[in-house]
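Data deposition worksheet. Section B asks for the primary sequence of the deposited chain exactly as it was used as input, without tags or linkers unless they were present during the calculation. Section C holds the resulting structure in token form. Section D is free text for depositor observations; keep each observation to a single sentence. Incomplete worksheets are returned to the depositor.
Section A, Depositor: J.P.
Section B:
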Amino acid sequence: MKPIFTSITRAVAIASAVAFPADAQMAAMPPMDHGLMEAPESHADMAGMDMSATNEKNSGSSASGSGTSRLPAAEGMMTGLHLTPGGWVIMVHGYAWATYSDQGGPRGDDKAFVTSMAMVEGARDLSDTTRLQLRGMFSFDPLIGRRGYPNLFATGETANGVALVDRQHPHDLFMELSARIDTKVGGGLTAFVYGGPVAEPALGPSAFMHRASAQFNPEAPITHHWFDSTHIAFGVITAGISNKQFQLEGSAFRGREPDEERYDIESPKLDSYSVRGTWTPTPNWAASLSYGRLKSPEALHRQEDESRLIAVVGYADTRLAVTAAYGRKDRLPGRVVDAYLAEANWKFVPRHAVFGRVENVENDELFGEESPLHDRPFRITKATLGYAYTLPVGPFGLSLGGSGSVYAKSAALDAAYGHSPKSFTLFAKLALGN
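Section C:
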């Protein structure tokens, strides 16, 4: 994959030189919605355009999340560098998040690390009814190391051929390389096709790092592999139809989770499928129901397929963002394990925010085959509460804060995890435009 990596690196460098002229404008991006964009008359008009599909008068009840997911339009957290070279509308967004985490109990660990994300998204009209969007998303998380960072009761993926337990795996360098075409088909409807060698199928909520309800939470949810772990899939094709309040879509994609080689692009496959329906009745609300059938998602259980059923409700206004979700995994053949999540971010006064997350998950992957507790499901509850203060630093926002977590679990886990483990984090998040 080295030739691919070299070619993409050179392409990004050339595109950056072309797309970042000295007179580039800084603008906060509005909520992103779905449909087709009309040509603006000036840079001032362009600042009111979204990056995903239409102008607000055609589709004002939803904003774009990761992949093709929809969020409440009032969420409006996508900000960044906004450029308009040669008929394109380009948005550049990203962050670097320095964190110190101390996970308590005998199986806990502490670590200082940096997570990151950079996204470049460009769109232009191909005709009066058709629009093209290109998106690249990248992360330098592989620099953390194969074992990622400590996150008590989190499971999923592998490092050095061993299942990761009580760790959050690093994300791949290439988080998304995708294209999308939207076409008006009449009657207020828009048809779209989306996909790429690295993309996100229509399954579950918007990935946690793209939700305003998790904007300042430095930890991945321990329910990540119940809800949004498919946000990096190698090979995705999605087709759908939408209007102002509804979206119905289906995907074919590769079901296997990313492997341990975080710098490459794995061979795309279309061996799994999903369907998702989303309802956005007002700018403040979004709800979705999705189902997916995944072919051999886990490298250590290649003989097992999996189905997922996921329901999500999101609310947002100018200060508050909330996400609630239920996820059910049915291992085929095997048992059913489910999970619940509720998270919120409240900007109670300018620059100050409190955030929290409560998760409840049935997890049967906490112990290896050498343990008498192997393959036994345990119900875990994690509650997190935190605070962040954000100050402007030029075109960036610097958020300083911390969080603490407590857990409820079975007494059978006391020998491994202690009676009442507690964890905390301290962080500094530098985000472009926030």
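Section D:
The chain has four helices and 22 strands.
The CA atoms of residues 69 and 206 lie 6 Å apart.
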